[in-house]
DNA sequence: AGTCGGTGATTGAATATTCAGTCAACAATG
DNA sequence: CATTGTTGACTGAATATTCAATCACCGACT
């Protein structure tokens, strides 16, 4: 098994996927502000003109790219149904924090942050991220509700707690990508303390 | 008192301040990706060339602008020494959430988010935001330590809790500016629940 | 089997636009 | 007069986008 980003085939068959990978590489390398069609073309083994054969504009390409990325991200979240709710929560957060801290993903994470920041002035971006958030939040909410039914968690407002948890993840990601020396270990530890003191029903 | 953003004089005497305001307006209107010297000049009642009389480059202008913004932000955080620690915490968060939710500040918040996102690929930006975070986090940490000494709070790791609180604020801000329908009321309510269950020493 | 016609993929060069930065000149002010 | 503020026109480098022209393949027709 070759070492590579787990988001892409080593040799993408599909043209679209090849374009997505080229965009990903260019975005990681140069950042959103310096992302040009030329640079995407440079990471692409076909000509840059070909990009316009598949997309109407740079903007259309980027919108498609964002959808592609978010879809893949949703695909990577762990979904074991087996364990107890509190364990599922912890496993999920372990996964998320591992991704945030993974040095190999640093550039990707930064790129996602930049992409998301575009939502501030781009509605189509904003809608996509909002949908992604909703999906993610629902998964968390499910786990919390399950935990309540299992008698493991207190009878909290599951939606409200899920909102908070997603906000924390978002804040941690944002900090990790835009701050030097963010103390994410502290946040992770405190997150467990939060779950313990707020959710766990110790009887 | 004329209605306006509280960040600027209605008629800035200082040229620098006028440039800052023009930059702010251009950034709010077009977003960081489409922020050009031309557009800053358009919001400026003097010519765009004059900008180069005051700054060596667009980059230098933007760096100065960021410093200007962060300075103003630090100036607006409330610092009453009087009350009990838990009240000070709540007052502080009320202030922050009011700013996040204030419709008049929406553009400002978005502008800050976009600026911060630039830190992903710009070191000088990142350093400035990191310094700002540190300052903010210290204030929160002070309050928590004070609360512990007052016997109001449990003997938690103040630095760790402060990290979490800053992360939550950051996440809330990020969501407010990049998501449609973010449920910030839920986050605010849950934040109180967190403080209650994790910090408050009920004896 | 072999040829013809069509279709989508692909390319390199050309075009039109945008943008940061410069400059020489003009205006105001002391 | 000298200094400082101010301007509009200008430039060269990028950048997005277009376009005319190949190329590779495939199905139909003889």
From TrEMBL, chains A, B:
It comes from the Archaea. Residues 13-73 form the HTH tetR-type domain. One of its GO terms (molecular function) is DNA-binding transcription factor activity. Residues 36-55 bind DNA. It holds the Pfam family TetR_N. The keyword Acyltransferase does not apply. InterPro entries: BetI_C, Homeodomain-like_sf, HTH-type_TetR-like_transc_reg, HTH_TetR, Tet_transcr_reg_TetR-rel_C_sf. Gene3D superfamilies: Tetracycline Repressor, domain 2. Keywords: DNA-binding, Repressor, Transcription, Transcription regulation. The keyword DNA-binding applies. PANTHER family: HTH-TYPE TRANSCRIPTIONAL REGULATOR BETI, HTH-TYPE TRANSCRIPTIONAL REGULATOR RUTR. This is DNA-binding transcriptional regulator, AcrR family. It comes from Halorientalis regularis.
